[in-house]
């Protein structure tokens, strides 16, 4: 028998949620065939089977969040010896509702009965010792909350939020699996205004006003549950707006020569490389150069320190059916325009097909969002923490401009940046955007695109 566990899908991933079981008890499964869909705080993904066989037992219900390493499913491989009834392995069938003695998900599955309720095994074949041996395993899971929040496995985001808001984790009740403190728990404390109170400060004497209850849905209204992706986006965006000193700057860029270049090379480029050439790879290249020139924009705030990245991992915001996701072009500073175009096309396609891995949506040092294709001419994006800036590339439109004291029609675009005033000042933000503007207006991308 093979035990399938919650996999470690990324360095910072400590837990995952079972979204959907793709196999049921009694189903046959081939090696590398998807078993279930899971969601982490980074991305959703399917998990393939490491072996071929038959699903013997599903240990965790859909919708349950469990720590990495938790047993989720048991698979019997062909030719494997049947469980020994004397050891308790055949104590019950899957339909009996009895959990195995080493059931690690009993407290999270919500519907598993304890092994004491099984009567399928003869009393003579169920000695006391094995039953007693199961107690430490169950107790090890049950006592996780008793170890204290500071000894728990906490996500880096939870630790950072607690540090930034001066929260005492020991005073925050955890609602995650095994009592783990989740991002939602921390955000609830921050939103309630109790951040200082949890750190030992005196609580306010006047209770805050209670919010008005939301009106109930009426005729003609459609009630749609908040998806786990939408909830994760909401938590991340709320944390950014509450944890950064956001400011905003915009410049106007003449991209007339880029429009003409793209029109000239787009057919040959797609035929040669199998992808469409857009303006975004050119914007990425121009932005990478500016980030290397101004490293405080390509940075993150770590407590009392500013960490400057001497490389560029560019996050690209991608809209897909579940919401918004930010895959990362790793090592963008070492790519030419064609390489950037290929990476963006690959990541965007796999994002929309729900095929990204968690490591592909983390590690960004800066982020670019591109609402221009949808008609936006000016936007104020929320900073993608822990980045200290996010650049927005809006719609290219033809409009009259003054060139050499004459009015001319040119293709113009607004490029703006939301930036964290805790790290970046107005002069730096403006100089950075001026560098991006200069690059886009003066660089000749024709040779870089093979034109």
Could you explain the architecture of this structure?
The longest helix is centred in the middle third of the chain and has 18 residues, at 256-273. This protein is of the alpha+beta class and 451 residues long. It folds into three domains: 2-143, OB fold (Dihydrolipoamide Acetyltransferase, E2P) (Beta Barrel); 144-199 and 227-243, no CATH class; 248-442, Chloramphenicol Acetyltransferase (2-Layer Sandwich). Strands 9, 12, 15, 16, 17, 18 and 19 form a seven-stranded mixed beta sheet that branches. Strands 1-8-6-3 form a four-stranded antiparallel beta sheet, with no helix packed on it. A four-stranded antiparallel beta sheet has the order 5-4-2-7, with no helix packed on it. The chain contains ten helices and 19 strands. It has helices spanning 106-109, 128-142, 156-164, 183-191, 195-198, 228-243, 256-273, 280-293, 337-352, 426-442, and strands at residues 2-5, 15-21, 28-29, 34-39, 44-48, 53-58, 65-67, 71-76, 246-254, 299-302, 305-308, 314-316, 318-320, 323-325, 328-329, 366-369, 389-393, 397-403, 406-420. Residues 84-151 and 196-203 have low confidence and may be disordered. Helix 8 (280-293) crosses helix 9 (337-352) and helix 8 (280-293) crosses helix 10 (426-442).
